[in-house]
Write a structure and sequence with these properties.
The complex is a heterodimer of chains A (about 290) and B (about 300).
Chain A (H helix, E strand, L loop, with lengths): L7 H7 L4 H28 L4 H7 L13 H6 L4 H37 L5 H12 L3 H14 L6 H5 L6 H11 L5 H8 L4 H12 L1 H17 L2 H6 L8 H7 L8 H21 L1 H14 L1
Helix pairs in contact in A: 3-15, 5-9, 5-12, 5-14, 6-9, 9-12, 9-16, 10-11, 12-16
Chain B lengths: L1 H7 L4 H27 L2 E3 L4 E3 L3 H8 L1 H21 L1 H11 L6 H13 L2 H11 L7 H8 L11 H29 L3 H9 L4 H12 L1 H16 L3 H6 L13 H11 L3 H25 L2 H6 L1
Antiparallel strand pairs in B: 1-2
Classes of the chains: A mainly alpha (about 290), B mainly alpha (about 300).
Chain lengths: ~290, ~300
């Protein structure tokens, strides 16, 4: 994007090589970034101080290095009961994220493949249904789904958390938009070479859909890692809690666990940040796909 | 062998591919939707289920706590739309110009909050909006000479805190949406406008804004839904579904309190369906006003 010859402000006629304007504009984004990073930075500083201070004083920028200690993190990694609990949540979150990404992508790819590669009578109707499911916020289906999961005996199971969301309409939509632009001649070429319909799907089309997989896997992973409302309803036993649910249980009015809460919160952001920094491009592709085409 | 041949035929294969969606649609969309509609006409007690007709809906009409929740959700939705469309759009236009240096860095920073879970961002904001004079927001208002506030105990400041969490998390994301919308605008339009002697403001008004319309409609649609269905932000700021005088209660928060906490599935369902009706009506009106349907008829 940066390398483009002209851009909209330039097109508006403001391209006067105005250095002052450039410094002002860049400075504005620097300031905005500073404001945005502020809460995380304050949280990071607080994670080096006793949790009791948080409950007594609230969160604010305190740059006094002399009062900082590594105690919260040492406690977090000490291997005691609290630490074990924290890493159990961490592990549960990792597992849930992994299963959820693999399951969602596999299912959504297949559905989108069917919707984009074939002409069949129900095609447009089914695609309309995909869009329709996006029109009802999950929160409205929360109660009946909760009741359904209980009656199916899936409460407190990972299947109960995953199954209702595995056919994610937005993911199907993204894959479908991506694949509808792929050349259909590849299918016929595959058929002439004697490949079956499923062989074509897995051996010919799957490899050229990789960029879509990259974008969607990151988006799904982030969603699964951060998801709380539905897992919180389904999981009942403390041994199954994910990181967001676990951290939420520490948010008590007594503040007796704020050491783990603040250090654990900061440590819990790290995996997402690393993934983001490595795959920033795919993040943005996945995020913006709906906005341009929809 | 026959079955295999049938399943592998070109006419049956697409149905095999879309089967997971059909199953999921039936079990996890149509069924719960119908069951919540049915439940909204029932009283569901642990031992028996009673048909009560419109009783739940009539109760909603006079339930002042529910009215409070609807008002809160509407105020939140309107404020987030007012803040999260014009500003990200302006930032995107700025970011798209050659004036801004080191774009990648700023984009990454602005995007960061969207990566944090609502639990972590909610906890951080809860602590920043602490009522002690040492909480960050009170430090700032102190410097400005405004004194200290009990942020999360008063309606106006509580709503402010909620809107701040939302703006903090989504400004960068919405900016990215608008940036990708700007990318799709044809540069030749600006050039010909320039030849016709259009000013910068005219070009923004008559080229950028109309051509960004699909993006704007998309952002508006998701903002309406997210705004009306907001719950976890409030849950985190007040460490649970309860807030003093219900200042942070939203429609979904009320649905949660009734349906999950109090296990009144019937009444909770009615709350959910009213929310669905509101969301659909607003969205359809919005889409008609913006002419989206007209375009598709062509």
């Amino acid at each position: 994007m940066e390398s483009r010859k002209s851009s909209s402000l330039d097109k508006l006629g403001m391209n006067k090589k105005n250095k002052i304007l450039s410094i002002f504009a860049t400075g504005w984004f620097a300031l905005l970034s500073l404001i945005i990073v502020f809460p995380i930075f304050a949280g990071l500083l607080a994670s080096f101080r006793p949790g009791q201070e948080l409950i007594r004083k609230g969160l604010s920028i305190d740059l006094d290095v002399t009062t900082m200690t590594l105690n919260n993190y040492l406690y977090l990694f000490s291997g005691n009961a609290d630490s074990q609990k924290y890493f159990m949540w961490f592990k549960n979150s990792l597992m849930l994220t992994l299963i959820s990404v693999v399951g969602t992508l596999a299912v959504c790819y297949l559905v989108a493949y069917g919707l984009s590669m074939y002409e069949f009578p129900l095609r447009n109707f089914l695609f309309f249904l995909v869009i329709a499911t996006m029109m009802v916020p999950f929160e409205i289906l929360m109660l009946p789904l909760y009741k359904e999961v209980i009656s199916l005996n899936l409460i407190d199971t990972t299947s109960g958390v995953l199954l209702p969301g595995i056919c994610a309409a937005s993911t199907i939509f993204f894959f479908r938009q991506y694949m509808i632009g792929l050349p259909k001649e590849l299918l016929d070429a595959g058929r002439i070479d004697g490949a079956t319909e499923y062989g074509i799907c897995f051996k010919i089309m799957l490899p050229i859909t990789k960029p879509a997989f990259a974008a969607m896997s990151i988006l799904c992973a982030m969603g699964a890692w951060n998801n709380i409302l539905w897992p919180m309803l389904v999981y009942r036993s403390a041994s199954k809690f994910t990181l967001p649910i676990g951290l939420n249980t520490l948010l008590t009015p007594y503040g007796n666990n704020y050491d783990v809460l603040i250090a654990g919160s900061m440590f819990g952001i790290i995996p997402v940040f690393i993934v983001f920094l490595c795959f920033q491009k795919y993040f943005i592709d996945g995020m913006t796909a709906g906005a341009v085409k929809g | 062998m026959k079955i295999r041949k049938f399943l592998y035929s070109q006419r049956v294969a697409p149905y095999v591919f879309v089967l997971p969606f059909i199953l999921s649609f039936c079990f996890f969309w149509i069924y719960p939707l119908c069951s919540t509609i049915v439940m909204s006409f029932q009283d569901i007690l642990p031992t028996r289920t009673e048909w009560v007709g419109l009783k739940n809906y009539k109760k909603l009409l006079i339930d002042t706590t529910f009215h409070q929740a609807v008002i809160n959700s509407f105020q939140y939705m309107l404020l987030t739309i007012l803040l999260l469309i014009p500003f990200p759009m302006a930032f995107a236009v700025m970011m798209d110009s050659r004036l801004v240096k080191a774009k990648g860095v700023w984009k990454a920073f602005l995007y960061l909050p969207a990566l944090t879970s609502v639990v972590i961002s909610g906890t951080l904001f809860r602590l920043m909006f602490s009522e002690y004079s040492t909480g960050q927001l009170n430090v700032i208002t102190g410097i400005l000479g405004l004194g200290t506030f009990k942020w999360l105990k008063v309606k106006a400041t509580g709503l402010f805190a909620l809107v701040m969490v939302c703006c903090w998390r989504w400004t960068g994301v919405n900016m990215l949406y608008f940036l990708s919308g700007l990318k799709s605008i044809d540069g030749a339009l600006y050039e010909s406008a320039e030849i016709d002697g259009a000013s910068a403001i005219q070009k923004f008004r008559f080229i950028t804004i109309p051509l960004l319309k699909p993006t704007t409609i998309y952002v508006l649609t998701i903002s309406i839904y997210a705004g009306l269905a907001m719950f976890m932000e409030s849950y985190m700021l007040w460490a649970g579904p309860d807030s003093p005088n219900n200042i942070g209660l939203t429609i979904v928060g009320y649905l949660y309190k009734r349906g999950i906490t109090k296990n009144q599935l019937g009444y909770g369902s009615a709350v959910g369906l009213v929310l669905l009706a509101i969301a659909l009506v607003i969205n359809v009106v919005q889409l008609i006003l913006s002419g989206t349907f007209k375009k598709e008829e062509k």
